[in-house]
Amino acid sequence: xxxxxxxxFALAALLLALAACGKKEGADNAxxxxxxxxxxERKLTSNGLEIDDQGGIxxxxxxxxxxxxxxxxxxxxxxxxxxxxxxxxxxxxxxxxFWAGAQRDYDLLAYDxxxxxxxxxxxxxxxxxxxxxxxxxxxAYVEAKKQKHYALYLDRDSLMSIGPYDAAKxxxxxxxxxxGDMAYGWSKPKEHExxxxxxxxxxxxxxxVAEELRWYIPKNEDEARQLEASLSKLRSNPSSTxxxxxxxxxxxxxxxxxxxKQQYNALLVVDGIAVTDPKTRQPLLTMDFHAIExxxxxxxxxxxxxxxxxxxxxx
Length: 315
Fold this sequence. Notes:
Blueprint: H1 8-41, E1 43-44, E2 50-51, E3 57-60, E4 71-75, H2 84-101, H3 106-113, H4 115-119, H5 123-132, H6 134-146, E5 149-154, E6 160-162, E7 172-175, E8 183-187, E9 199-205, E10 215-216, H7 221-232, E11 242-244, E12 246-252, E13 265-276, E14 283-288, H8 289-292, E15 295-298, H9 301-307
Parallel strand pairs: 4-5, 9-13
Antiparallel strand pairs: 1-2, 2-3, 3-15, 5-12, 6-7, 6-11, 7-10, 8-9, 12-13, 13-14
């Protein structure tokens, strides 16, 4: 039998090495624990939406897309439908905006998509029609969900504002006029007279960004000079702010419930804006809010309620 003895130096080195391994293992084990602790501190709604420190629901923005990818919702002061065909097209547009974010509801889908259901006065016969049309209603629902990106154009109130050029920041302060509790839409046909809420409405989340981020910085001096030349023609004096129309580009959020008074509302999460020339509607500047502030907080009680499932009885 062979006996092996460690020198005092070797034993000390071995003990140090084991201690170091123990520290490393402890550190490795601590990292996941700390990470889990950090995740545990995040507050979430019952359907997994993040809640910020002020109780608002955080919604992610999406990167701004090319203009042609958006369908325009024209809310300009001069917009008028010229005939019944155009009116029907606009009604269809706002109907699809609503269903792009709404939960599937066969009775409501039937009312919106099937003229025979709207015309039928017998409740039992209406229910019979709905039962036989589920496949058709599913197809209409899926089709509406395919288009999520819309751009609402406003020129009649709540205008966007561009302040004077700031040489130190090499840019322009920009603010939007829409508040979170504002909404625009179109009356539902043949229903509005007996139901005051029978309007397809578009509400907003994230119409602006944090105050310190509300700056448009031209990419170079040539762009700055061109923008300044356009704005100078619209100013009353060199230091005045210019109020202008523009587009709110965004995507329709998925709503989890439909509170009674909000039953026809869609939520447009604003991903960016374009401030436009009042005569030509051509963009003077475009801001990608997703690049500036990737998430926006929803604090309006009615919208927060619609973003979450209705509580189960007894919960």
